[in-house]
Design brief:
Distance between the termini: 53 Å
Strand order of the largest sheet: 1-2-3-4-5
Shape: globular
Order of helices and strands: EHEHEEEHEE
Mean pLDDT: 86
Structural class: alpha+beta
Protein name: Cytochrome P460 domain-containing protein
Largest sheet: 5 strands, antiparallel
Number of helices: 3
Helix content: 10-25%
Strand content: 25-35%
Low-confidence stretches: 2-7, 152-156
Number of domains: 1
């Protein structure tokens, strides 16, 4: 008999206290579920739109990217990064905070709400394994764990 179970994993990256004061480096969107992307849209953006279409009941949300002030220079070249919290992406409507932290040069991921509570079990796309798999798949865009192609660039 084979039994399949889904093992939920808590966030690996820690919640970075004080992230609200980090400088904003980019503003983007999680796009609405009914978004029709241009045919030349990158696979990374297509997957991001498909993965997060559930946010805000499919209506999308502004997304704010903030970088740890101690890592701004590292972010400009996308690493390598020193240990500690690196960047947060904040879904402004849902209050989801995606965290990328580095340890020994490797990115780790986590999902929290604005109160600092781990919400990685709220949806499969918030689990650290999902983040890791996508960032690893698109290493040309997600360099050292931080992604460089904002969704809105598809419409510029």
């Amino acid at each position: 008999m084979v039994v399949h179970t889904h093992a939920h994993a808590d966030s690996v990256a820690s919640y970075p206290e004080g992230w609200e004061a980090w400088p904003v480096v980019k503003e983007s969107m999680t796009l609405p579920a009914d978004t029709v992307l241009p045919p030349e849209t990158s696979l990374f953006i297509q997957e991001a739109v498909r993965s997060y279409a559930w946010i805000n009941n499919g209506e999308g949300s502004p997304l704010t990217i903030r970088v740890n002030p101690d890592k701004l220079e590292q972010y400009k070249t996308h690493g390598p990064y020193t240990d500690g919290p690196t960047v947060v992406a904040v879904s402004e409507v849902e209050g989801i905070i995606w965290v990328t932290e580095h340890f020994a040069g490797l990115p780790m991921y986590g999902s929290y709400n604005r109160k600092g509570q781990d919400i990685s079990s709220m949806h499969p796309t918030l689990e650290p394994e999902f983040c890791q798999r996508c960032h690893d798949t698109y290493k040309d865009i997600c360099i050292n764990g931080t992604c460089t192609e904002p969704v809105l660039s598809s419409y510029e």
